[in-house]
Specification:
43% of the residues lie in helices and 14% in strands. The protein is of the alpha/beta class. The chain has a five-stranded parallel sheet, sandwiched between helices. Pfam families: adh_short.
Length: 166
């Protein structure tokens, strides 16, 4: 068993019903954190919470492109645990990697930008609303090396993930 490095910490993780977010939720709970999984995939999110145990994880339905959903997710965490220590903006979508920009649709580009770039902005905005008065907290945003390598992913994905680099 590992040393519980996150004992007593509370984390909100977007996009944690699968993939990197799910792995993060599992790792955080293994290290003693309480996690709230915020995702649009209700069934998968609830399944992960059940596997992690009700004492360690809970689920809130959240579309990261909707500010009211992010605000509700943060408020849910604070109502349940009294604080928010870690905000992990992880939700993301890739889109279709079409190298010919003339064949890309504006609506798909806007959707990917909304999830991958606006989502983390809204997550950070509402997390700091809690973290600043409490004088502490950590915000993590998942980026991608695709943002530095052209033609590996869709134009929208590459642009959105480049916007997440700090």
């Amino acid at each position: 068993m590992c040393e519980p490095r996150l004992e007593g910490k509370v984390a909100l993780i977007t996009g944690a019903a699968s993939g990197i977010g799910e792995s993060t939720a599992r790792l955080f709970t293994k290290h003693g954190a309480k996690v709230v999984i915020a995702d649009i995939q209700d069934d998968l999110g609830k399944k992960v919470c059940k596997e992690l145990g009700q004492s360690s994880a809970s689920f809130v339905q959240c579309d990261v492109t909707k500010e009211s959903d992010i605000e509700t997710a943060v408020n849910t965490v604070v109502a349940k645990y009294g604080k928010l220590d870690i905000m992990h903006n992880n939700a993301g979508i890739g889109g279709i990697a079409n190298p010919n920009i003339l064949e890309n649709e504006k609506s798909e580009f806007e959707n990917i930008i909304s999830v991958n770039l606006l989502g983390p902005f809204l997550g950070a905005k509402h997390a700091v609303r809690i973290m600043i008065p409490n004088r502490g907290g950590t915000i993590i945003t998942t980026a991608s090396t695709c943002s530095t390598i052209g033609s590996v992913a869709s134009h929208a994905y590459t642009s959105s993930k480049h916007g997440c680099w700090d």
